[in-house]
Design a protein that fits this description.
Blueprint: H1 2-28, H2 52-57, H3 69-78, E1 81-86, H4 91-107, E2 111-115, H5 121-125, E3 133-138, E4 141-147, H6 153-164
Parallel strand pairs: 1-2
Antiparallel strand pairs: 1-3, 3-4
Helix pairs in contact: 4-6
Organism: Corticicoccus populi
Family: Belongs to the thioredoxin family.
Keywords: Disulfide bond, Membrane, Redox-active center, Transmembrane, Transmembrane helix
């Protein structure tokens, strides 16, 4: 009888550990579990392969305008659009993004972002030489761009105003 109780206890412990393991594993695979806000725009990338620096930006509202490359292609084909190419490992992006966001808020324009760390093919597709890069598109064609951090909100506002017709 003693052996049966011993084996029963071992079986219960194994089941508890297995259940905990499967629960924790399923939670870590959920995109929403990567951030407190639940923001996860990388719908075409498995959450397990998203880089750590990108995960670190998921709760930063300055980076809540992200799209996939397919979405960016659709947006730029269908309408005039500003697209901001950035990388979470770029210190110039970290400095420029708050300025850019303020400029877009002041101008009332719509911003689209593309994370080139996660979408490396975008470097070649859009001929990005460095980040940050802001490109204005009309009818699917690039019209103008700003590369680098201008260091002030006014430069971004002027670029936005020039191309949004205001």
């Amino acid at each position: 009888m003693g052996n049966k109780i011993f084996y029963l206890i071992i079986a219960v412990v194994v089941v508890i550990f297995a259940g905990t393991f499967f629960y924790m594993n399923s939670q870590s695979n959920s995109p929403e579990s990567l951030s407190d806000s639940g923001y996860y725009p990388y719908t075409d990338i498995d959450p397990e392969v998203i880089s750590g620096p990108t995960v670190d930006t998921l709760d930063d509202e300055n980076y809540h305008y992200n799209h996939t490359p397919d979405e960016i292609a659709d947006i730029t084909q269908e309408e005039s659009a500003f697209v901001y190419y950035w990388s979470p490992t770029c210190p110039h992006c970290q400095a420029a993004t708050p300025l850019l966001i303020e400029a877009f808020d002041n101008e009332g324009a719509e911003l689209n972002q593309l994370n080139v760390l996660e979408y490396e093919a975008s470097w070649q597709t859009y001929q990005i030489e460095s980040t940050p890069t802001l490109i204005y598109f009309e009818n699917g064609e690039e019209v103008d761009r700003i590369t680098g951090n201008p260091g002030n909100v006014e430069t971004y506002e002027s670029f936005i105003s020039e191309h949004s017709g205001e």
